[in-house]
Amino acid sequence: SITPVKVAVTGAAGNIGYSLLFRIASGALLGPDTPVELRLLEITPALKAVEGVVMELEDSAFPTLAGVEIGDDPNVIFDGANVALLVGARPRTKGMERGDLLEANGAIFTGQGKALNDHAADDIRITVTGNPANTNALIARSNAPDIPAERFSALTRLDHNRALAQLARKAGVHVTELKKLTIWGNHSATQYPDIFHAEVAGKNTADFTGDTDWLENDFIPTVQKRGAAIIEARGASSAASAAAATIDHTRDWLRGSADGDWLSMAVVSDGSYGVPEGLISSFPVTTKDGNWEIVQGLDINDFSRARIDASTAELAEERDAVQALNLLG
Ligand code: NAI
Q1: Which residues pair with 266 in a beta bridge?
Q2: According to the model, what pLDDT value does residue 206 have?
Q3: Interface ipTM
Q4: Which is the closest atom of ligand 1 to the Cα of 91?
Q5: Where are the transmembrane segments (predicted)?
């Protein structure tokens, strides 16, 4: 029998967790032939709710689910983890300032970074979905000095998938006919969805990129504000699509991106494309066997340059704010 892959998920009792756990257990992350052990972390008051989710996981009788551990101690739950999906975070509540939010999440991600450092398996891969995702990933990374920096990533795949959906709709094609779209920068309203290198059904996107009015006033704001539009319509934030994107991101990282295409992932910058070194910023990347590489040599026009710079400036500000709070180990 094959040793199960240990997948740790935080925020297991939350909305994203309720969709994510069942997809992992059913084989969507690691494939139909790989048994998976789920290791679920929650805060103490939410453990009872997690017990209910575990009952439902059992009742789903998934052939690929080898076991489930739950708990409130990251040192225990991250023990031996091969993959960690850090979804749980402190949401902004009424009256909370941005600094309070960074501080509350800072406490979570410093502790989880240290616990991963001390207890995760040597092949650990970490995806941060909980917001502010890029900066939370930066905090965890800087508190885990023994884990290579390239093992930390933050989720911009939902933004990437949203951009695919909008471009497919405009072009009248299926999303599978689109390639080489990029999300740059922060997972926030400043993110920049870039279609200047995209291919639509094998052709370039000159028809669409030439339509600056559509780009500036429709496509980009629609992608940037899609999260708010879903809250407005559904009365709750996007959860199933965020879970799907968390799976897509981590699955493609482990199993590789398609030939002739690339993905968007927020990873540690090596200074490529003028993004300050050390920031966790979204780039076009190719992946293979659990490793990623930033796609090099793309021409960046002035339209794109200004937007990439604005989003990475926001990331630098967030970094400076958490540095001032002494959250960077
Ligand atoms: P939720 O509020 O339903 O669930 C979050 C869960 O995390 C709660 O059950 C909470 O108890 C738990 N949690 C809080 N602190 C924790 C800790 N220290 N350890 C373990 N668990 C902890 O929120 P939801 O809808 O599931 O979203 C989760 C996060 O994902 C939020 O920060 C949200 O903003 C973010 N998000 C990110 C997206 C992205 O594209 N990067 C897209 C959608 C949501």
Answers
A1: 154, 282
A2: 73
A3: 0.99
A4: 32
A5: none
Quote the pLDDT of residue 119: 98
Rounded to the nearest angstrom, the distance between the alpha carbon of 36 and the centre of ligand 1 is 22
**Which residue of 42, 78, 190 sits with most ligand 1 atoms within 8 Å of its CB, as the best mutation to test the pocket?**
42
- The answer to whether the beta carbons of residues 76 and 85 sit under 8 Å apart is no
Rounded distance, CA 247 to CA 129, Å? 11
Q: Which of 154, 172, 199 is the last residue of a domain?
A: 154
Answer whether residue 145 is part of any domain.
yes
The full length of the chain comes to 329
Q: Which of 109, 125, 154 is the last residue of a domain?
A: 154
**Which residues form the domain of 92?**
5-154
Cβ partners under 8 Å of residue 49, min gap 6: 13, 42
Read off the pLDDT of residues 116-172 as tens digits, 9 standing for 90 and up: 999 999 999 999 999 999 999 999 999 999 999 999 999 999 999 999 999 999 999
Specify burial of residue 170 (Cβ count, 10 A radius: 0-12, 13-18, 19+).
Answer: middle
Report CA(220)–ligand 1 centroid distance (Å). 25
Q: Is residue 325 part of a domain?
A: no
Q: Are residues 48 and 92 in the same domain?
A: yes
Ligand 1 within 6 A of CB of 315: no
Residues belonging to the active site: 187
Q: With a 6 A CB cut-off, is 246 part of the ligand 1 pocket?
A: no
Q: What's the CA-to-centroid distance between 6 and ligand 1, angstroms? A: 20
Per-residue pLDDT at 224: 92
Q: Choose the residue to mutate in 76, 85, 86, 87 for probing ligand 1, maximizing ligand atoms within 8 Å of C-beta.
A: 87
Q: State yes or no: 271 annotated in a binding site.
A: no
In the chain, which stretches have pLDDT less than 50?
none
